[in-house]
Amino acid sequence: KTLAAFLYCLDRLVRVSDEGGLEDRVSVVYVSPLKALSNDVQKNLDQPIAELCELARSRGLTPPALRTAVRTGDSSAADRRALVKRPPHVLVTTPESLYILLTSVSGRRALERVGTIILDEIHAVAPDKRGAHLALSVERLEALVLAAGNPRPQRIGLSATMRPIEVEIGRAH
Fold this sequence. Notes:
- 54% of the residues lie in helices and 12% in strands.
- The protein is α/β, with parallel strands linked by helices and 173 residues long.
- Helix 4 (95-103) crosses helix 5 (105-111).
- The longest helix is centred in the first third of the chain and has 24 residues, at 35-58.
- The protein starts with a helix and ends with a helix.
């Protein structure tokens, strides 16, 4: 499910790269409720990116220079500085780290042109305070993007354990 959510984003980034327009900016924010999952997602994302680059090289094309980075509570100061200095195209983070990014000038500057927000494992945070906190951070991120004059970011929510919305709505009534 996670890779399926990323496929559209990667396709869009590769197309922009092919046209020579790939900028050093965060285009996709992926939010995971767990630091360990964030690291795994980055590794699992780097593999298809490497395969896309190899495919481009094999066809005589310039490979896309897509970058990913993880920003969690475990990120070193050097990693955080590098993220600001040269933003990744895909930022993998946690709800708490997203909140922290939104509270700093450099973090807001890095996020003001985000085009897609992927929220994974939403069932793990939705029913508690972390979910409410994440919802506020997503609203703040969207407001930041819109205030900078950019289009509303696409939101993608992922969960393997949620019932269809029609079932949930029916249960609420």
